[in-house]
User: What shape does this take?
Amino acid sequence: MLRALIFDVDGTLADTERHGHRVAFNRAFAEARLNWVWDESLYGDLLAVSGGKERIRHFITVYHPETPCGQGELDAFIEDLHAAKTRHYLSLLETGGIPARPGVLRLIEEAKAAELVLAIATTATAENVEAMLSGWFGAEALRWFELIAAGDIVSNKKPASDIYEYVLAKLSLDATDCLAFEDSENGLRSALGAGIPTLVTVNDYTIGQDFTGALLVTDHLGEPELPLTCLSEAPWKPFGLVDIDALRRLHENWTREKIEQP
Ligand code: XBP
Ligand code: MG
Assistant: This one.
């Protein structure tokens, strides 16, 4: 039975990467007087590494191995740089706001009304997620989510399945009673690794990725005035938008197939 919806944040709830995180990283670099600039194309490549601190470390290893730090110093340097990046990201959220992707606010409201458990599974920093959700819905929205699992709460970030396994364990949920929402191949691998059937809503950065195993791939969740486009072959496709009825039917279908072909 469908009991819970577990959402990724970056790229799924909102297009945060190109005009949000990327800009915040660049502001932190400039503030630290580093002449590093992550343009949109380079940032697309760097997104292969989940997690802001991990992304900075990867960038240093590949592009600036000369960065003069001992191992302990490098950890502290990355920690400080990332803290500045988080500060810039939060101020971007506060000033400009980052709009939710089509269908996201609607579906969260519908899921709440249907008394489904709501949870978040993200590699990003918890403060970012909390600021985004409370910016959209008001501070009480944080209580709508049974669990916000974020950032360094697990040691292995996506595509490892740790963050989804953490959510399942914390909420005593069976993977087969949940649906996950992701936007990237790394996220899909993470959720599928935990055994959770997963819908993918692609974005500009992820559209070419391999979504084999996804329950459904669409361009977004759809709104009455902005119907979604289905990008995958699915035995049952939502018409126009993903709502609770569509999710229950997709989930039932998946469960039936699993029983027929275990
Ligand atoms: C999101 C990320 C995050 C953000 C940056 O991946 O990789 O690292 O880009 O956030 P996913 P922080 O959507 O798969 O969870 O800098 O706060 O880590
Ligand atoms: Mg994502």
